[in-house]
Specification:
mainly alpha, 0% strand
């Protein structure tokens, strides 16, 4: 299967082995979140705000790295304690 932001995010949630906990943390019903993360379900879409919350909760930025790479950018993490850092 071709890589996509949705499939990468689905892997992050399933890889966390706490997908129901992730759904609870982001405030979405579990079935809704899983539908949005299904790359084969074209009726439900993963929104940018939901993606950001999933990345915060799972601490997995693989989808962000993929997007940056696709756009010709490279991510570099800021040092801990930098101004503007948000804690999840």
């Amino acid at each position: 299967m071709r890589r996509s932001v949705t499939s990468i995010t689905q892997n992050a949630v399933l890889g966390a082995r706490r997908s129901k906990w992730v759904a609870q943390q982001i405030g979405k019903p579990y079935p809704t979140m899983m539908r949005e993360l299904n790359p084969h379900d074209h009726s439900a879409k993963l929104g940018a705000d939901t993606l950001l919350e999933i990345m915060r909760v799972t601490r997995d930025v693989a989808a962000l790295e993929y997007m940056a790479q696709e756009m010709g950018y490279q991510l570099t993490p800021r040092s801990a304690g930098s101004a503007g850092d948000k804690q999840p």
